[in-house]
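WARN no homologs supplied; continuing
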Amino acid sequence: MITMDRVIISPSILSADFMNLEQEIRAVKDAGAEWIHIDVMDGHFVPNITIGIPVVKSIRRKTDMFLDVHLMIENPEKFVCEFAQAGADLITFHYEAAENPDRVISLIKDCGKKVGISIKPGTESNRIFPYLKMVDLVLVMTVEPGFGGQEFMHDCAMKIPSIKEAAPENLIIQVDGGINNITSKICKSLGASSLVAGSYIYGSCDYKKAVESLL
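OK structure emitted
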């Protein structure tokens, strides 16, 4: 479930060892992470291809963790119900990828799932203000979506305060891109309530210490 008691850490499996994905997910859960972030890329909206519906379904069978599914795909309305059926708990789509964001939001809600809307670094935060009362989460990208391990873009983090000011009190503001023990503090100080970290956690020799350093 979604909780606002503390910052929600959502490790991105994009940086996990896919040969041992079940163990990698269990390990970050044991380390204190509440969510798992699943990056779905189609090679069109972003210049990379990752995983799809069958992998989400397989992950759902192996864990009870909250599945935070981030769709970096064109025409998200064509696939949200399939990802919902596969076991996603939260489905985040990109504002830039949707011709009709209201329609995508309604589809996700009709599937009984939580809704997130994301913006790329080049998109101004005010573009999503009309949707803030309709969604559960806003995802602010602090790198160009497509690949893990990129450097944190400080200017993008400055979108957080304006979103927080315009948003209802219970909206989760999530940040993804270049998150580590230093940039996490910047994001939290600006009002972020959820952090996605991939290479920082999965590249660490101590997952628990890495997760705790973000809280």
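The chain has one domain: 8-214.
OK
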